[in-house]
């Protein structure tokens, strides 16, 4: 893994603690969209596989790895609303507000990215969050100075598991996909990496079981804090 030229980080479950950030944020968004209708809130919680009393998602939740493009139509159907661009934008805006309020990092991502950047690696975020939300969170966590690119599901390259974001970063950085590794915690990250011809580093820090992914990963670490040791940096 020492010959890598770039690392492309998933965000939620990799850099950001999904349950501690998005658990309470999802509770806020659900209650806001339900507008005081307890039955509507309960329906949203059910289709989201969300446990409101614990403010966390079940591993089967469509929100764990999916974007608003994935779960937004389901929410619209549940609320008997149109799955319009305005509705998806509203979801993203509400999550952006609440995500910053509850933002919690996994480990010490700023120190890790600073070290990786200092050793000459090109760094990017490729996430199924909205790009604006991802940029705000990267800025809040102090990661922005070390990132050459931030792509979200709405950046024009498609969401994961499609490989568009990974291929776009490879082209922008001028690297062959094989010289890149996606760092992530889900099957979507693995599929995006493999679809682009990139390598995949699995982190165990997300909420979903990852045992079935280990055999297909090029490397497995507990969290991004372990990357310098893995790469011998």
Describe this protein's structure.
With 233 residues, this protein is an alpha/beta fold. The protein has two domains: 6-17 and 105-230, Rossmann fold; 18-101, no CATH class. Helices cover 44% and strands 12% of the residues. The chain is built from ten helices and eight strands. The strands form two sheets. The chain has a six-stranded parallel beta sheet, sandwiched between helices. It has a two-stranded antiparallel sheet with strand order 2-3. Helix 1 packs across helix 4 (85-101) and helix 3 (68-78) crosses helix 4. It starts with 5 loop residues before the first strand and ends with a helix.
Write down the CATH topology of the largest domain: Rossmann fold
Q: Any idea what the CATH architecture of the largest domain is? A: 3-Layer(aba) Sandwich
Number of domains: 2
Instruction: Tell me the structural class.
Output: alpha/beta
Number of helical regions? 10
Record keyword descriptors for this entry.
Rossmann fold, two-stranded antiparallel sheet, alpha/beta, about 230 residues, globular, six-stranded parallel β-sheet, 2 domains, 8 strands, single chain
């Amino acid at each position: 893994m020492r010959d890598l030229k770039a690392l492309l980080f998933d965000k939620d479950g990799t850099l950001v603690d999904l349950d501690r950030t998005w658990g309470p944020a999802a509770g806020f968004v659900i209650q806001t969209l339900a507008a005081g209708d307890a039955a509507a809130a309960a329906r949203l919680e059910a289709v989201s596989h969300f446990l409101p009393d614990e403010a966390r998602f079940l591993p089967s939740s469509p929100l764990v790895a999916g974007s608003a493009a994935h779960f937004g139509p389901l929410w619209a159907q549940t609320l008997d609303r149109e799955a319009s661009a305005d509705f998806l934008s509203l979801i993203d805006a509400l999550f952006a507000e609440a995500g910053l309020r509850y933002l919690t990092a996994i480990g010490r991502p700023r120190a890790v990215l600073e070290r990786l950047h200092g050793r000459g690696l090109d760094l990017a975020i490729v996430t199924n969050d909205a790009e604006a939300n991802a940029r705000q969170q990267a800025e809040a966590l102090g990661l922005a100075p070390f990132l050459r690119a931030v792509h979200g599901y709405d950046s024009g390259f498609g969401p994961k598991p499609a490989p568009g974001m990974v291929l776009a970063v490879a082209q922008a950085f001028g690297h062959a996909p094989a010289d890149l590794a996606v760092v992530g915690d889900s099957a979507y990250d693995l599929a995006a990496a493999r679809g682009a011809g990139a390598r995949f580093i699995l982190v165990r820090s997300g909420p979903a079981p990852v045992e079935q992914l280990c055999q297909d990963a090029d490397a497995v670490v507990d969290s991004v804090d372990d990357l310098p040791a893995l790469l011998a940096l």
